[in-house]
Amino acid sequence: MDLTYYFIGLLTGVSVSTFFIGKELYKYYTKYTIQKKQLDRILKLNDNIKRLKNLQTIDASNLSAV
Amino acid sequence: MRNRHKFAFIICCAIADMIAMVFGTILFLNFTTTEAVGWNLMFLDKMIPITILSWLFSVTYFQLYRVDVLFSLDFFYRNSWRAFFTQRIIWYGYIYVFQDDVLYFFGTKANLFQLSFLLFYFLISRILFTVVINKIKGWVFKRYTVAIWGFNKTSIELASHLEANSFFIDFIGIINENSTVNYTNNDDFSIALTEAIHKASNENVNELYIVSKPDYISDLNYFFELGDKHCMRLKFIPDFSLISKKHFCSSHLDNFHVIMPRFEPLQNAYNRLIKRIFDLIFSSLVIVLIMSWLYPLLAIIIKKQSKGPVLFKQMRTGKKNEPFCCYKFRSMYINVGDESQQAKKEDARVTPIGKFLRRSSLDEMPQFFNVFLGNMSVVGPRPHMIKHTSDYNDHIHNFMVRHFVKPGITGLAQVSGFRGETKRVSDMIRRVNKDIEYVQRWSLITDVKICFLTIIVTLKGDENAF
Fold this sequence. Notes:
Chain A: Keywords: Membrane, Transmembrane, Transmembrane helix. The complex is a heterodimer of chains A (66) and B (466). With 66 residues, chain A is an all-alpha fold. Chain A has a domain at 26-66. Chain A is built from 1 helix and no strands. By secondary structure, chain B is of the alpha/beta class. Chain B is built from 16 helices and 10 strands. Chain B has a 4-stranded parallel β-sheet, sandwiched between helices. A two-stranded antiparallel ribbon of chain B has the order 5-6. The longest helix of chain B is centred in the middle third of the chain and has 37 residues, at 269-305. The termini of chain B are far apart. The mean pLDDT of chain B is 86. The chains are: A mainly alpha (66), B alpha/beta (466). At the A-B interface, α1 of A face α4, α6 and α7 of B.
């Protein structure tokens, strides 16, 4: 058996599969880190909106009391 | 400084790829001489120019070395693979056209070594490029700083987009994301924005995105002038997140800013021309090579098994909601039941040959005549009966969007498993969503991909086909 063909096949297979698996893993890693940041920001925005709503209800109740 | 690094990176990538391509061909030529393939010298001499030209064509077509404001590594990886694949097809095509013994060639050491070398190079080079591009920001002495002012849903999405692609810019984030100040009127907002511009200028921000609701801003030019004064590029992005949950598509009509609910590539006349040429070539080939013998064969069997015409003609809804006559091989007995009723499993109206035709989707073949005539396309949303169109239009608000393009023989919905009978409205909603996705994502490559997937789905046999 010619080992050269075996080696070429192995190298080609490893190259192609590593390229595609690596590409997907890198995509997943960047998406994960960016979405984590995005989620933190959305939670912060949500807190802001909640705080604003609370302030508005307090203002409205104060006005009705007056 | 950002341009110098960006161009240096892109040019280095381009040169490295080209050298690898040429080296791969040299490797190939070396083995052909040692293996004595027996190809003529004239042919072998042209291998290197053919390699260079085919690679140049591929990278130009896929815009692999496109220099944009933002650099997407995902786009770079995807298009690297596509360009390499296209180059190989052209290269093998050249050998196929000018040489006879192609099958022998595929198994030669020359071909295998070259292919193996190129694939290995692509893996190593892409890893190296990723490492370099992630480190490049650290090597820049004077960075191009970008920031966002305004904390809302749009600015959060913009921040994520910039963070994902900020290899050549220094994105510092949303500068007022921790602020608790609420703007009750335009004056408060203007004071806060003016202060933010001054502060950003002191912090050496080169580009500032202002993301806010348009009604907060009373004089946009004043802020642009303020930005100019501080030698800072100011960009305004309106925040529509409070008036719409969905994303808009925006473009320009001369100087007018146009906002549309969705992007439609087929609104471009050149894209429509490309699709029409593809349809004409595809349908002509099918009519000449397949329908020429299949039609008479099936016509005899259909006529033998049941009385009636070979072709079943039905009015269906086409592009712009205009009805057209859709052709199919007749798969049911005539004058049995309601024609407008959808076919069900074990339908008594179906003839024996009709069963086979429906299962193998061969009953749709005469629709290539519709494609040739121009009232259908090879790929597109499936045309429905006029009655069904009006029924579904009452239940599904965006149903008519699928009629912005020509209906097709196959479509994205069909290869995604949404074909056959729709028992519930929710089934149709899913199908319509896939059709709209196709309208928004059209490209010639998508069409070719759908054609291949249709062949695979048909050969595998779809349980929804009956």
